[in-house]
UniProtKB/TrEMBL annotation, chain A:
Protein name (record): DMT family transporter
InterPro entries in alphabetical order: YdcZ
Species, as recorded: Shewanella electrica
UniProt cross-references to Pfam families, sorted A to Z: DMT_YdcZ
Alphabetical UniProt keywords: Membrane, Transmembrane, Transmembrane helix
Residues that span the membrane, as ranges: 36-56, 68-87, 93-113, 125-142
UniProtKB/TrEMBL annotation, chain B:
Pfam families: DMT_YdcZ
Transmembrane parts of this sequence: 33-55, 67-86, 128-145
Record flagged with keyword Lyase: no
Organism this protein belongs to: Shewanella electrica
Domain of life: Bacteria
Keywords: Membrane, Transmembrane, Transmembrane helix
Taxonomic lineage of the native organism: Bacteria, Pseudomonadati, Pseudomonadota, Gammaproteobacteria, Alteromonadales
Descriptive protein name: DMT family transporter
Length: 152, 146
């Protein structure tokens, strides 16, 4: 079960990197904000279609959950803006490492304390080792991005 | 100045994890697709306003672009639905690391074969090593949880 979920999440990452490539190309033609709008609006349309035909009824609706649970997009959209602003000034290499660092720190914190209604998954030795491995991986991503920027 | 920018980008990355952290429990409560709509619906409204007020004027129309370059939103739905389903089952950290493995692996392939109109660049050793370490990290977290 865990393996299946991990595999699914890896596929999610693949989708994300295809999306980044596709959107990068579109963004260079029509601008980043127009690209972001197109992505979200097409996403909303497709989700509505999927809901109409496939979603099972639930006891609770979006209107009844606590409002702070609906703030996800307010955390995701600023990311797009920050990246537009920062990548030109600090470079892709540093930006990539900084984003991943932020993601990991926050996700370890959420897991450890069970914030936002998530299950508690306490910090443990394997997790510390995993962070070390990721730090090494980040170093190599940084080195590879910097080499590419230099050669362009 | 540079440090401030880096801190902003770190905060942006934290935002992504918070988004994922909100999505999982929301999906359990109202359904995975409704949770996905909360991201894309609100996101579409926010980015529409941003585009209206701040986008550079007189950029080329979407209809002048090849159709496949407009598919980002379709791919995005796949990603967010997967996020909503997997996060509550394996935890935010393991989900994020799996996503990272997918991203690095896929971008290696895209660059190597020059897919999607990207300039062809043979696999570079550094990213290969990075991918190996990401996989080790995944195995460590998965092992610790089992």
């Amino acid at each position: 079960m865990i393996l299946l979920m991990v595999l699914l999440a890896v596929i999610g990452g693949c989708l994300l990197s295809i999306q980044a490539t596709v959107n990068g190309r579109l963004g260079s033609q029509v601008g980043v904000l127009k690209t972001a709008f197109l992505t979200f609006s097409i996403g909303a349309m497709i989700t509505v279609l999927l809901i109409l035909f496939f979603e099972q009824p639930h006891d609770v609706t979006l209107m009844e959950v606590p409002k702070w649970r609906l703030l996800g997009a307010f955390c995701g959209v600023p990311y797009i803006l920050i990246m537009i602003f920062a990548v030109q000034r600090i470079g892709t290499a540093v930006a990539t490492v900084a984003v991943i660092f932020g993601q990991l720190t926050m996700s370890m914190l959420i897991d450890n304390f069970g914030w936002l209604g998530n299950n508690v998954m306490p910090f443990s030795w394997p997790r510390v080792l995993a962070v070390v491995c990721l730090a090494i991986a980040l170093y190599f991503i940084y080195a590879s991005n910097r080499a590419e920027t230099a050669s362009n | 100045m540079k440090l401030l920018l880096i801190l902003m980008v770190i905060a942006g990355g934290m935002g992504l994890s918070v988004e994922a952290g909100l999505l999982g429990p929301l999906g359990v409560a109202v359904g995975d697709l409704w949770a996905t709509l909360s991201i894309f619906g609100v996101g579409a409204i926010l980015t529409f306003l941003l585009m209206l007020f701040f986008s550079p004027r007189e950029t080329p129309s979407f209809f002048q672009q090849p159709g496949w370059t407009l598919t980002g939103g379709i791919l995005g739905v796949g990603y967010v639905v997967i996020l909503t389903i997997t996060a509550p089952k394996i935890g935010i950290a393991m989900m994020m690391i799996s996503v990272l493995a997918g991203q690095v692996g896929k971008s290696l392939l895209i660059d190597h074969f020059g897919w999607l109109g990207v300039e062809r660049r043979p696999v570079n050793k550094q990213r290969m090593i990075a991918l190996v370490f990401i996989c080790i990290a995944l195995a460590l977290i998965a092992g610790g949880q089992a």
